């Protein structure tokens, strides 16, 4: 790795933080590293990370592709880009939010998790209350949030070896009851 490569990636991050008025401490928490690591990275006291997870988190927060960092190598871990994740990214754009602006809408301790969800490393999840928080940020109706939850729930069941086709009637009843409960608790929009 030469200094030009190192400098380019470090400068990308430094310029992003300055342009978006993001404090290094806040950035460190979003990408799951220490504050001293961010300072050393920007000051070029350490080589720019080649760890795919760190680079993907940095790129996600910056709203760029990780391939824009010359140090990035395609990871061996499987990254999931399921329908809900793609829809979530579309909704962020439709609401005229950058990835950073969306992430900052969450409390600090939740931001790293949101970064990992946006990069496809973690599922969106099936906790309806958490999905409703995402929905509120993205101006989604309760019914739209329910559809997102339903897709995640079915995927969750299938990963647990649940055969949705063979158990269609059971699944339909579960989803019907869940929809009634959701509309009772959150109302229908």
Could you walk me through the main structural features you see in this protein, from its secondary elements to its overall organization?
It is a single chain. With 189 residues, this protein is mostly helical. The chain has 2 domains: 3-68, 434 Repressor (Amino-terminal Domain) (Orthogonal Bundle); 123-189, no CATH class. The protein is built from 10 helices and no strands. The relative contact order is 0.09.
Quickly describe the structure.
By secondary structure, the chain is mostly helical. 63% of the residues lie in helices and 0% in strands.
How far apart, in Å, are the first and last alpha carbons?
Answer: 54 Å
- The topology string of helices and strands comes to HHHHHHHHHH
The major β-sheet equals: none
Tell me the domain tally.
Answer: 2
Q: Tell me roughly what share of residues is in helical segments.
A: 55-70%
Supply Rg: 19 Å
Number of strands: 0
The low-pLDDT segments are 1-7
| Structural class designation | mainly alpha
Q: How many individual helices?
A: 10
């Amino acid at each position: 790795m030469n200094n030009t490569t190192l400098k380019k990636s470090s400068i990308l991050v430094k310029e992003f933080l300055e342009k978006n008025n993001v404090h290094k401490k806040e950035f460190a928490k979003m990408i799951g590293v220490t504050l001293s690591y961010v300072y050393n990275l920007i000051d070029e006291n350490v080589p720019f990370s080649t760890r795919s997870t760190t680079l993907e988190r940095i790129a996600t927060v910056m709203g760029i592709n990780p391939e824009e960092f010359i140090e990035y190598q395609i990871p061996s871990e499987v990254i999931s880009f399921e329908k809900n994740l793609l829809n979530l990214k579309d909704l962020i754009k439709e609401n005229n939010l950058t990835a950073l602006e969306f992430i900052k809408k969450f409390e600090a301790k939740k931001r790293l998790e949101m970064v990992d969800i946006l990069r496809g490393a973690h599922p969106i999840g099936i906790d309806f209350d958490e999905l409703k928080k995402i929905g509120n940020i993205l101006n989604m109706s309760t019914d739209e949030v329910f559809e997102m939850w339903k897709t995640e729930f079915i995927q969750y069941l299938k990963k647990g070896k649940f055969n949705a086709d063979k158990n269609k009637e059971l699944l339909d009843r579960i989803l019907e009851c869940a929809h009634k409960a959701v509309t009772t608790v959150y109302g229908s929009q």
